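Today's session is about reading a structure prediction critically. Students often jump straight to the picture, but the first step is always the sequence itself: look for stretches that repeat, for charged clusters, for runs of hydrophobic residues. Only then move on to the predicted structure, which in these notes is written as discrete structure tokens rather than atom positions. Here is the chain we will use throughout the hour.
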Amino acid sequence: MNDLNPQLFNRPQNYSRREALRKTSNGFGAVALASALQNPAHAQSTMSLPIRAKHVVFCYMSGGVSHVDSFDPKAKLAELDGKSMPVTVERTQFNNNGNIMRSPFQFTNRGESGIPVSDMFPKIGQYVDDMAVIRSMTSPVNEHAQGNFFMHTGFPIMGYPTAGAWCSYGLGSANEELPSYVVLQSGNAVPPHGGVSLYSNGFLPAQYQGSILKADQREAIRNLFGSDTKTAQRRRLDFTRSLDSQFSESHGEQDQIEAAISNLETAFRMQTAVPDVCDISGETQETRDLYGLDSADQAMAAYGRQCLLARRMIEKGVRFIELSCLTRGIGAGGAPNPWDQHSQLEQGHREMAKQVDQPIAALMGDLKRRGLLEETLIVWAGEFGRTPFSQGSNGRDHNPFGFSIWMAGGGIKGGSTYGETDELGYHAVENRCEVYDMWATTLHLMGLNHKDLTYRHAGRDFRLTDVHGNVLTPILS
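Below is the predicted structure for this chain, in token form.
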């Protein structure tokens, strides 16, 4: 096989610009240009808006963080602690509903903006003046898998492209040696309920799917390295590409074949780039301490490594990076949904907050010092919030009717809040938001018009925001 000459399988022909981009090794890196050439509406979307954010870091808090215990304090909960809810209670996941439960956490006004932040997040609270806290997010579902799919794709079931895939499709890669969409895991982190489909390309070409990278493993991506020499691998790839290209030509344009060729080329280049970006031996002890890499708390150290690698990947041009929480197993929060405290909420939330607080704050501060926060959008969110009343004696059930997320960095008006829930933190009552709005705003900041970024599938033009979504202009700088 190594001695086969791919030229023997080529036939003379004239190449159009599109064919040259699609078939040459270097051309596969120009995904954004190739996509623009193939889709006029797509091309318009990539050029019609100013680019405020070149990268996105999605800090996904799987399981559902309690908003009334983190970023949306409610004095009424303390006043009515232990009493029955004065309003109709919606059906919950387990319908084991108790009375109103005060927050066990203290809130402090932070920064010049004075935004109240729970004592769960003492370090993240230092950067509240870089954040916009959205207190009126909603979701149409209150079950984990559906909620995770909806938060990632805009649809509550599998089969649709995730936000990272859409960003990758819309903008392509800024570094041909690394995927444009990476999901970082470490320690015992696993995908949330819904599995790896949450990182899927859906019906988009396969090169836009998320690449899972184990931040603390020697082989960060499984089966990335083969036994052949680079020269032998290059010849095998050239031979395979030659046969695949001829097959594609004889059967018309085949997205699966083009995507397979592109993925092989990217994997070949990643064999050098991935070990390099994962090698943190050159980082200073100051940086290690900043991210908590040597902490006795192994979960925090593992999450800190994800945050440090996120910074390194931003420096390398990766477009979309999702971080994964590790499990604590407290209060019914299992491995896929570690923030899910149906009991022992105070203990479970404190443990989870300890895991992510220092690393996320370190990432924000590190990016800020390097001048990268202004071009990096950080999105912090879970699939829903939690009820203002107890489940059992000391937990909270799921609440999709009004909860909090925050966004920071590239193009965001720092030190701002948007929307409100009612006095109990139960329903969004002012500037009600949907997940579509969050992603419409994200795409807008990346220079993409969410209404124009479409892909035709099954006779219909699909988009990340479906037929919904508004850019949240009040939170933009």
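Discussion point for the tutorial: The longest strand covers residues 131-138.
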